[in-house]
Design a protein that fits this description.
Bound molecules: 1,3,4-trihydroxy-5-OXO-cyclohexanecarboxylic acid
Largest sheet: 5 strands, parallel
Strand content: 15-25%
Number of helices: 5
CATH topology: Rossmann fold
Distance between the termini: 17 Å
CATH architecture: 3-Layer(aba) Sandwich
CATH class: Alpha Beta
Structural class: alpha/beta
Radius of gyration: 14 Å
């Protein structure tokens, strides 16, 4: 029997504030609703999804080490760390499973400092600008990659 693949959905700083944080940019869906969306999508795709959020860079790095050790796939919204955290980039580079970078907004269409992602070069791919659907699309991409 085929084992159910585990996917860690990791979220960086301020994403726990979804729903009330800049709703014109990020919409009205709360973080809890996002967790439910990811779990529902995972169940539909036959993936074991675990969703986490932290405001702490070192905790996020630790979770990426965990994904590396377990061989788990990762869906990562690094939030503001996207734009400057080389520590996060180096941790992402060690992940052997698919690692999809996601963004709710389209950073390329926003302020200049958001145009750089230090993570993109070590991600399998990036999905950005589809609101909460970015996560659904990322989980679908993981399922497709794991089925190959
Ligand atoms: C974000 C985009 C980042 O620029 C920002 O710092 C975030 C959220 C997004 O999901 O659109 O916190 O990653």
């Amino acid at each position: 029997m085929r084992q159910v693949a585990t996917v860690l959905v990791l979220n960086g700083p301020n994403l726990n504030r979804l729903g009330t944080r800049e709703p014109d940019v990020y919409g009205h869906t709360s973080y809890d609703d996002l967790v439910a969306l990811c779990e529902r999508t995972g169940a539909e795709l036959g993936l074991q999804v675990e969703v986490r959020q932290t405001n702490d860079e070192s905790e996020l790095v630790g979770w990426l080490h965990e994904a590396t050790d377990l061989g788990s796939a990762v869906v990562l919204n690094p939030a503001a760390f996207t734009h400057y955290s080389y520590a996060l980039r180096d941790a992402c580079a060690m992940v052997s499973g698919p690692l999809i970078e996601v963004h709710i907004s389209n950073p390329a269409a926003r302020e200049e400092f958001r145009h750089t992602s230090v993570v993109a070069g070590v991600a399998t791919g990036t999905i950005a600008g589809f609101g909460m659907d970015s996560y659904r699309l990322a989980l679908q991409a993981v399922a497709t990659l794991l089925a190959r």
